[in-house]
Amino acid sequence: MLRRSFVLVALLVAFTATPFVEKANAKKCRSCDAHVIIQLYDTRGEYRTRAYVAPFKMRRCVSGYNPNKARRAARDRAIACVQKFFQNPGSAPPECTDMSTGSGDSGLQKKLPAPWYTLGPKTAALIEAKSLSETYNGVLRNKNSNYRYKVFVETHGNTGCRRDQLVEVSPIRRVDSRLPKSVNFKIENERLARWSSKAKPMKIISKQSVRYSVTGRMYNSQKTNIVPASVTSMATGGVLRNQEHSYNGCGRHAGHHVMMWSGKRLSFRGETSPAFDIIRGPLIPKRDGLKPMTPGMLKKGLNNLLRRHETGLSARIYRRVTRPQEAIFNHVSSKGPVIALVQGGHHYVTALGTWHPLLQPRSERNFYTFNNGAKEYFATSSYYNLRFSSFYERLMFGSWRPGTMILTE
Questions:
Q1: What is residue 56's three-state secondary structure?
Q2: Which tens digit of pLDDT belongs to each residue from 351-361?
Q3: If 70 and its partner were Cys, which of 30, 222, 360, 393 is the partner (CB 3.0–4.6 Å)?
């Protein structure tokens, strides 16, 4: 009897101790995505535009049960990777090289693009800055000396990954700075062309290349970029810029973007905004600036404007949940702008062109984006995933669906 009691006590101690052992050895692993950002400035130091390059992914494992602690650790290590690499460009730091090899292992899950290691981050960033400035300038306006650039790193993902502001990793430099002799950046061809036989607006097609040699081997990358030409500055090949307006509903802004692209100079408040109805009713929160509209309402208002001004164009709703970026790229490249429902299903932006970083795979691109009445920029294609958040999935009705885009042609 005594022996049996001893065994029961031993089992009870072992059972109650197990959770404490497991807790002491527990690990939480989480990841954060990151990008290097190139920002252009004019000679007065005023911000002009930005683009996202060199995507990578960092994973960190920490003791305990706090997932946000792991995300913050991943975020900080991703930022340290780029900061240290720019401080010592001749040698990539461990933060930029150590890979995660297992489910409980910290490290990179996706490295920076290979040329960033081969050429060094400063040379790689200068190449992308030259390509971006040439695309943003347009035909016959390629004065690189007018631009300066800075390099930042930004992390994004679930709670714990995001930073409130960009982290600067490189001071301002001139875009016309010289590249190493082993690197040759070249504008192969730039020209104006119509979007299609049906559309009157013009686009600027810029074909660029970079060639460089490393240890006797020659590398070559060519990319073709497309941006909309401004009707008012066609003689100089100027790129269409967004008009700055105070906010009056993202759908109304998106409709105005398309009318600008079509060559019509309308009053945003006086003519564009009244053409678009918004959802009204007791269930709509009375928050400042909340002016929702369904894709069907946006399409109807846009078609009314396109017909009224005899553009010969029309808008239609198209949906693609799987790889919508390819559909957006194909349409923007050959037919016209795309209004996309982004940010989990609650915001409209307009894609009007594409820019491909020279040192990344062809499938990794930025879309020339107009967002409300703010400054235009080149958004990463992942921004256009067209997925709905769990909240908006519960609110789906009518034309409000994931994968939604409004095509103009």
A1: strand
A2: 999 999 999 99
A3: 30
Q: Mean per-residue pLDDT for 336-358?
A: 95
**Among residues 185, 80, 180, 203, which one has the least CA distance to residue 128?**
185
Predicted pLDDT at 9 = 46
- 297 pLDDT exceeds 70? yes
Quick one: which of 317, 319, 332 has its CA closest to 367?
A: 332
Find where tokens 């003689």 sit.
235
Confidence grade of residue 104 (pLDDT, cut at 50, 70, 90): low
Residue 140, pLDDT score: 57
Residue 134 CB-density burial (10 A; 0-12 exposed, 13-18 middle, 19+ buried) = buried
Full DSSP string of 296-345: HHHHHHHHHHHHHTT-S--EEEEE--SSHHHHHHHHHHHT--EEEEETTT
pLDDT recorded at residue 153: 94
Q: What angle separates helix 250-261 from helix 295-308, to the nearest 10 degrees?
A: 30
Q: Which residue has the tokens 């490290």?
A: 107
Domain of 39 in residue numbering reads as 26-174
The CATH number linked to 368 is 3.90.70.10
Neighbours of 161 (CB within 10 A): 21
Same domain, residue pair 143 and 199:
no
Mean pLDDT (whole number) for 362-368: 93
| 274 bridge partner residues | none
Residues 141 and 250 in one domain: no
Residue 229: strand, helix, or coil? strand
pTM of the model: 0.89
Q: For residue 363, tell me if it sits in a domain.
A: yes
